[in-house]
Design brief:
The protein is an alpha+beta fold. It is built from six helices and nine strands; from the N terminus they run ααααααβββββββββ. The protein has a domain of 74 residues: Lipocalin.
């Protein structure tokens, strides 16, 4: 347990009012964003789940042993709360499979989180690890079909494009626009144009299909053969 978590949990157990305010102000926004990534179109339920998670955490503080960071522990409770809501509400779609929910990826993120206390550069590295994995989901099952890790850092930040011809276009962390095989994730082609800042778009002109990509105030057009 890091010192900040240890101190806050101790104050909460002692019933300090200021600690409850600090706990809510620190972790409610983070949990809300955590839930929002899984329920992007239901803000009201995101608020309910984030609040319920904090309430359950406060009820279970004596069981927190500090083997994981406090936020990691809260996310575990939040996942259980989300699972309960999904079971209760049959009208919801199946739970989306996010890269960060994969056990191996989550373990890597938690390892970074455990060592990032007091070091903003490490905190940034943790976010970059999450963003540098492109994941394809099967819309019928919600399960991951393939994952591609961008070695150069965060990729796909400008948005992505999928074509009917089975291609996925996305920017990587090295300033390239990359075409992936939509079925396997295998990179098929790339061009170094700078950091992609907007989702690529496609259009047809004179019988040919083009892909238009923006890097800041510059536009690049590529023809598909």
């Amino acid at each position: 347990m890091n010192e900040v978590d240890h101190e806050l949990v101790g104050r909460l157990v002692r019933g300090e009012r200021a600690a409850f305010d600090e706990f809510f102000n620190e972790y409610y926004p983070k949990l809300y964003r955590f839930v929002k990534r899984r329920l992007p179109s239901d803000s009201a339920t995101c608020e309910d789940v984030a609040q319920a998670t904090l309430c359950r955490a406060l009820e279970s503080l004596h069981g927190y042993r500090g083997e994981a960071a406090l936020m990691t522990w809260l996310c575990t409770i939040c996942r259980r709360e989300l699972s309960a809501r999904w079971r209760e509400n049959q009208g919801w779609a199946a739970a989306p499979a996010l890269a960060e929910d994969d056990p191996e990826i989550r373990a890597a993120l938690e390892s970074l989180l455990a060592s990032e206390q007091g070091d903003p550069l490490l905190a940034t590295s943790r976010e970059q690890v999450r963003q540098s994995i492109l994941t394809a989901l099967d819309y019928r099952t919600g399960k991951a079909r393939w994952r591609h890790k961008y070695e150069g850092g965060a990729g796909g930040g400008g948005g992505m494009l999928t074509t009917a011809g089975g291609l996925v276009f996305a920017g990587d962390g090295g300033g390239n626009i990359v075409a992936h095989d939509a079925a396997t994730g295998k990179p098929l082609w790339h061009s170094h144009i700078g950091n992609v800042t907007n989702p690529p778009i496609t259009y047809r002109l004179d019988g040919r299909q083009y892909v238009l990509v923006a890097t800041g105030d510059q536009l690049f057009t590529f023809v598909l053969y």
